[in-house]
Amino acid sequence: MGSKLFILACTAGLAVAVAVAAGASAQPHLPASGYQRLHVDKAVVGSTPVRVWANAAINPDCSAQTPDATLTILEQPAHGAAVVKDEPYYAAFPPANPRSACNDRKVPGHQAFYTAAAGYTGHDRMVLQGSSPDGAVRRIAVDITVR
């Protein structure tokens, strides 16, 4: 029988894939905390909204996996606002990934945006949580330098 391949893509340039043979189950190796910790640094100018993270679970034909990936805000930034939008975006799969053909069109997914408070400059931080259909959960700490 066939297999399924789940992909989690993000703006940090990561792509995580887990192949599962039909009728079998696979558990990703997780740290003792039950989730993988990631860290992203971003720089923004003024209060212009900037995308800080995006994820999707898509098929090789660029359609959404069912169930879908998720993205939520665990900790709001102290000096700005964050929002998650469920809307298509351009993914950036590596050339060897069978989904790289999807890079030239928008795919269904989730995007997290940060907007600094008017007049604020300095450091800000927010925490996101993303999951993929294979059960992988990632906590993403985003450190933001506002100029």
Descriptive account of the structure:
Keywords: Signal. Residues 1-21 form the signal peptide. The chain is an all-beta fold. The chain has a single domain (3-23, 33-146), classed as Immunoglobulin-like (Sandwich). 0% of the residues lie in helices and 50% in strands. A hairpin with a 5-residue loop joins strand 10 and strand 11 (137-146).
The gist of it:
Residues 1-21 form the signal peptide. With 147 residues, the protein is an all-beta fold.
Average pLDDT figure: 83
For the termini, the CA-CA separation is: 54 Å
Shape: globular
Tally of domains: 1
The share of residues in helices is: under 10%
Radius of gyration: 16 Å
The string of secondary-structure elements, in order, is: EEEEEEEEEEE
- What is the CATH first-level class name? Mainly Beta
CATH architecture: Sandwich
How many E-type strands? 11
Unreliable runs? 1-28
Signal peptide: 1-21
Keywords: Signal
Note the main attributes of this structure.
mainly beta; globular; disordered N terminus; 147 residues; three-stranded antiparallel β-sheet; single chain; Immunoglobulin-like
